[in-house]
């Protein structure tokens, strides 16, 4: 007689409802990597520790007062603190992923899918992960990105200039929305804008690269970076409908700049111009893919 009949029945019941608890079936759920009820437990802890202060409400009126006054004020303070740049953890979290993501190559398959390389295996073959957009939210098939968690592959997509919603840092529009949620419309939205717009943590690294204007006004600094009058990378530039037009305009402007540099070099033939032209051509020769643009702009031109 089998002594483990009860255990066998228990395992059979678990197997029949595997889709409810197995992680492999929960990759596309909006759980951000949380496969337990720790989010609910955290909310209960806040209610007990912060709102009730581990005291008991002896009547319904006191409990209602705690919920509609103390709990409301707590969430209001937390939203204001998070929206006004006083919480730096998301920015540090993003920067830690950025160190891993800036060398990954991103290939856009279609409007809702991206292929992103990962760290190389022992066979020197790049491992690729698929990042898909479900209901306007990015999901990665890697282990860390299961359930909608932010991972280095999603960070690489944002680093390469694509619009990403699944990102820990907030844009100015997000901060204004949180401010409206906390205190309503009775505040100045400009208070939520960063003090230095070029250092806004919500701006992607590729967008920042567009803030630099390459000037060749004299023969001794043909590829000197000029940051006195940076151009702003507007939100309208990120719209899918306007990307093609903006790319065409930028290509035309690039051709104008190349022609201007060519004229300067032809009219000022000397050893310094020759040296600068060689360095400039060597720099341009390293661009083989779109992913190489951020590396050129930030790792070399800013040295």
Explain how this protein is built.
The radius of gyration is 26 Å and the shape is flat. The protein has 11 helices and 6 strands. Among the domains are: 7-84, no CATH class; 88-160, no CATH class; 241-299, no CATH class. The strands form 2 sheets. A 4-stranded antiparallel β-sheet has the order 1-2-3-4, with helices on one face. It has 303 residues and is of the alpha+beta class. Helix 4 (60-83) packs antiparallel against helix 7 (172-183).
Short description:
With 303 residues, this protein is α+β, with helices and mostly antiparallel strands.
Layout of secondary structure:
Blueprint: H1 5-16, H2 18-21, H3 38-51, H4 60-83, H5 89-101, E1 106-110, E2 113-120, E3 126-134, E4 137-140, H6 152-159, H7 172-183, H8 205-209, E5 213-215, E6 224-226, H9 240-267, H10 271-285, H11 292-300
Antiparallel strand pairs: 1-2, 2-3, 3-4, 5-6
Helix pairs in contact: 4-7, 5-6
Domain SWIM-type: 129-162
Keywords: Metal-binding, Zinc, Zinc-finger
InterPro entries: Znf_SWIM (IPR007527)
């Amino acid at each position: 007689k089998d002594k483990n009949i009860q255990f066998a029945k228990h395992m059979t019941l678990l197997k029949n409802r595997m889709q409810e608890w197995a992680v492999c079936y929960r990759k596309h759920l909006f759980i951000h990597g949380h496969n337990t009820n720790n989010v609910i437990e955290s909310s209960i802890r806040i209610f007990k520790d912060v709102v009730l202060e581990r005291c008991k409400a002896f009547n319904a009126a006191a409990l209602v007062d705690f919920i509609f006054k103390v709990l409301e004020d707590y969430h209001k303070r937390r939203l204001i603190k998070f929206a006004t740049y006083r919480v730096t953890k998301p920015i540090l979290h993003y920067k830690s992923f950025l160190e891993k993501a800036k060398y990954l190559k991103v290939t856009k398959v279609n409007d809702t899918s991206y292929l992103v390389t990962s760290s190389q295996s022992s066979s020197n073959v790049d491992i690729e992960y698929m990042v898909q957009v479900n209901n306007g939210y990015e999901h990665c098939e890697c282990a860390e990105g299961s359930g909608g968690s932010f991972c280095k592959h999603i960070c690489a997509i944002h680093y390469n200039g694509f619009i990403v919603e699944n990102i820990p840092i907030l844009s100015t529009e997000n901060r204004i929305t949180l401010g409206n949620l906390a205190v309503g419309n009775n505040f100045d939205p400009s208070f939520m804008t960063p003090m230095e717009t070029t250092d806004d943590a919500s701006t992607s690294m590729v967008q920042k690269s567009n803030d630099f204007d390459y000037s060749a006004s004299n023969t001794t600094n043909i590829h000197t970076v000029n940051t006195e009058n940076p151009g702003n990378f507007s939100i309208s530039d990120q719209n899918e409908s306007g990307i093609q037009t903006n790319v065409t305009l930028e290509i035309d402007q690039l051709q104008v700049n190349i022609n201007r540099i060519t004229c300067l070099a032809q009219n000022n033939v000397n050893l310094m111009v020759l040296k600068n032209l060689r360095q400039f051509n060597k720099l341009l020769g390293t661009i083989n893919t779109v992913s190489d643009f951020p590396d050129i702009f930030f790792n070399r031109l800013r040295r």
